[in-house]
Specification:
The protein is mainly β and 298 residues long. The protein has a domain of 112 residues: 7 Propeller (Methylamine Dehydrogenase, Chain H). Helix content is 0%, strand content 48%. It is globular, with a radius of gyration of 18 Å.
Length: 298
């Protein structure tokens, strides 16, 4: 596992919460994402924390070597990595989406969303679609070119209308099984509600939102799908809720999992554990279904 936060430290951990390494990056870490094999870690940074005041997008490889670049998008609030780990995207305060090839962080494209403060980015499993959210409550889908090159790498808007009311936080997660025929996206916001979108023909010329299911919830700050595709985990003001992905029925709920807001939550690759990190500075592991901090916390 990897974690980061306001202390500017990028930390790696074993699954029994033993700390493996720590690197200080000099800037607040707003978001991070790793490849499935853990060989690549992306960080989105900004602000001043004892170092130069800059807005940085950074990559760390399996040898711990860091490559960073100044990202002209304000504080880098969110990052995403394609499943094949070839492409990395970043966005932030000014809303523009930057596309980099992970090897050397070379900039391939820049796309204006016409929205300020992008709050989430997510690739589809096949890498053909990129989803983004903004503080305006707009969920935008972009087609990602299969032949992205320095000469031609334009993100095109997909004509699908999606929105979610709220004010500042809009997490999204795309189902692991999604493809060009049927795609499912779950969204949440700090105003409450979880929405599950089913979209057909997303890779075609006439995509269509086939179904939208929504349920009332507390504030939602982070979301993730289980690797088995059948569960969705949502994190809120101290609580963690697991939903049945088919019905959105609650099948697992933890109150007071953290003291205050939970900023991120994720399933382990085998689906047996949930990891969470919050404003209280704690990183915790939960054995799914027990309702207790059975593995441990730091």
């Amino acid at each position: 596992m990897v974690s980061g936060g306001e202390d500017a430290d990028l930390r790696s951990w074993t699954l029994d919460l033993n700390e493996l390494s720590v690197q200080n990056l000099n800037h607040t870490i707003y978001d991070l994402e790793s490849s499935y094999d853990g060989s690549i870690v992306l960080t989105g940074e900004g602000g001043w924390n004892g170092g130069t005041d800059t807005d940085t997008f950074r990559i760390s490889d399996e040898f711990g070597l860091l490559t960073g670049t100044r990202a002209p998008i304000g504080y880098v609030y969110c990052v995403a990595l394609s499943r094949n780990a070839q492409w990395a995207v970043a966005s932030g305060f000014y809303g523009d989406i930057l596309v980099y090839e992970t090897s050397g962080l070379e900039l391939y494209a820049s796309k204006s969303t016409r929205k300020k403060r992008t709050k989430a980015l997510e690739f589809s499993p096949d890498g053909t679609v990129l989803a983004s959210t903004s503080t305006a409550g707009k969920i935008q889908l972009w087609s990602f070119p299969p032949d992205c090159s320095l000469d031609s790498c334009e993100l095109e808007s997909v004509p699908v209308s999606m929105s979610h009311s709220g004010s500042w936080v809009f997490p999204i997660a795309i189902a692991p099984y999604s493809d060009g025929d049927v795609t499912q996206i779950v969204s949440g916001s700090d105003s409450g509600k979880v929405k599950l979108w089913t979209i057909e023909n997303l890779a075609g010329l006439n995509p269509n939102v086939l179904l939208v299911r929504e349920i009332e919830s507390e504030s939602v700050y982070a979301l993730d799908w289980s690797p088995e595709w059948d569960k969705i985990v949502a994190a809120g003001n101290g609580s963690i809720t697991v939903y049945d992905a088919g019905t959105l029925d609650i099948i697992f709920h933890i109150e007071n999992a953290h003291d205050g807001r939970i900023n991120d939550v994720a399933f382990s690759p085998d689906g047996s554990l949930i990891v969470s990190g919050g404003d209280d500075g704690a990183l915790k592991l939960w054995e799914f279904g027990t309702g207790s901090d059975s593995v441990g916390g730091q």
